[in-house]
Design brief:
It contains nine helices and two strands. With 186 residues, the protein is mostly helical. Helix 3 crosses helix 5. This is DUF4202 domain-containing protein.
């Protein structure tokens, strides 16, 4: 088995322990598989590092619930930062066990912490994959019961995170109603 296959299998094994089920599967594992599918579609020539970052983006996420942090924006942002650091550390451990070098492990950590979005091509590619995965698989259930203004802000924020190429591709691939489509044209 290659280092990449070993690493992805270890990430899947870790995520298989997720007690939250979605469509009968561990939610974190399903998310990783969906991230990989979007990555393969959007960036078929992706490096091992980008493939690992996509698969491990939510590794063992359930071990750090949002409810452990204070309510409000500051609590949310602290939770997100802590999660990103945890994901980078945990995936790095798995990569080291599989024989990856320190530079590759550090690069995956940079991607998982989203350091250099809009400046680093791999960090941006990962963010584009995250946004496509959200739009394809998670937006509809997320949108249920939310008011239109809140959804518009969330869609606009999602579009701002994406590269210009990804926004154009999203417009071509998704039947986005106005004003959501306008956020991807901006």
């Amino acid at each position: 088995m290659t280092r990449l296959a070993t690493t992805l299998a270890a990430i899947d094994a870790a995520n298989s322990a997720d007690p939250d089920r979605h469509e009968g599967a561990p939610a974190a594992r399903l998310y990783g598989e969906r991230m990989t599918a979007e990555l393969e579609r959007l960036f078929p020539e992706a490096s091992d590092a980008l493939r690992i970052a996509a698969r491990g983006q939510h590794i063992e996420r359930w071990t750090s619930p949002r409810s452990d942090y204070p309510e409000g924006r500051e609590g949310y942002l602290t939770w997100r930062r802590d999660l990103a650091a945890f994901h980078a550390r945990r995936v790095g451990e798995i990569m080291a066990e599989a024989g990856y070098d320190d530079a590759t492990i550090a690069h995956v950590g940079t991607m998982l912490r989203k350091e250099g979005i809009k400046r680093d091509a791999d960090v941006q590619a990962l963010e584009d994959v995250i946004c496509f995965t959200f739009l394809r698989w998670y937006f509809s259930p997320f949108a249920e019961g939310r008011d239109a203004g809140e959804l518009e802000r969330i869609v606009a924020k999602t579009a701002r995170k994406m590269s210009a190429e990804a926004r154009a591709r999203a417009l071509a691939e998704f039947d986005l109603p106005e004003p959501f489509a306008a956020a991807f044209r901006a």
